Amino acid sequence: MTLKTTDPAQTPEQVFTITQSERESMKGHAAKVIWLTGLSGSGKSTIANALELALHQQHKHTYILDGDNVRRNLNKDLGFHPESRSENVRRIAEVALMMKDAGLIVIVTCIAPFAKDRDAARALIGDAGFIEVYVSTPLAVCEQRDPKGLYKKSRAGLMKNMRYPGSLSWCWIPGFVRWWRVLGGFWGGWNSRPAMRLFLQGAVCKGVTD
Predict the structure, then answer these.
(1) What is the DSSP annotation of the chain?
(2) Contact (Cβ atoms closer than 8 angstroms) between residue 23 and residue 31
(3) What is the DSSP string of 104-134?
(4) pLDDT digits over 58-78, tens only?
(5) Can you list the domains of the chain with their CATH numbers?
(6) Residue 126, pLDDT above cutoff 90
């Protein structure tokens, strides 16, 4: 079955009384989307979990949109070729936007290898509410961890559209991340109070913890 794109003119936006500003006022904090991007095994989910725990302790309203979890439900119809990867990011960005409108601090963990897709997510969500974080764990460290066995499979040529790291779309270095760069080599260290305090006080959470 081929799905057709809906013409926005046929579905005009419904405007409701309560806005994001009112929801933020009730919750007592700004709504943001913190997008953690990086290689598989870089530590995105580990950092996201520790960040959410720290924000929860401060009574902030949060939710983690994990790329793997979303692929198990909403995006289970998508593969890993470039078009599917772009659509995966687009859908996650749309959901993150709705959650942000609900007044939440949304923490996204998604490889999102293509700059154009990350830029599109930023444009959709709005620059003021979008914080991009590159978890810059070295490829060698990611491959050593290999929590999902992806690197081993790709070396063996068992994964279509995911050949050996170094020659494929999912092993990239963003040219420029506008907000923050995190070294994800501290695999277990993000649960420590000093490390998380530095993270929360950094530019990545500006406007979130104020």
Answers:
(1) -PPPPPPGGGSPPPP-SS-HHHHHHHHTS--EEEEEE--TTSSHHHHHHHHHHHHHHTT--EEEEEHHHHHTTTTTT--SSHHHHHHHHHHHHHHHHHHHHTT-EEEEE-----HHHHHHHHHHH-GGGEEEEEE---HHHHHHH-TTSHHHHHHTT-STT--STTSSTTS---S--SSEEE-TT-TTGGGSHHHHHHHHHSGGGTTT--
(2) yes
(3) -EEEEE-----HHHHHHHHHHH-GGGEEEEE
(4) 889 999 999 889 999 999 988
(5) 22-138+176-205 (3.40.50.300)
(6) yes
Give the model's pLDDT for residue 145.
84
Q: Do 27 and 71 form a contact (C-beta atoms < 8 A)?
A: no
Tokens, residue 61: 């309203």
pLDDT at 183: 47
How deeply is 198 buried, as exposed, middle or buried, from its count of CB atoms within 10 A (0-12, 13-18, 19+)?
A: exposed
Q: Quick one: pLDDT band at residue 39, thresholds 50, 70, 90?
A: confident
Percentage of the chain beyond pLDDT 90 is 30
Contact between residue 79 and residue 66 where contact means Cβ atoms under 8 Å apart = no
- Which tokens hold the place of 179? 């907000």
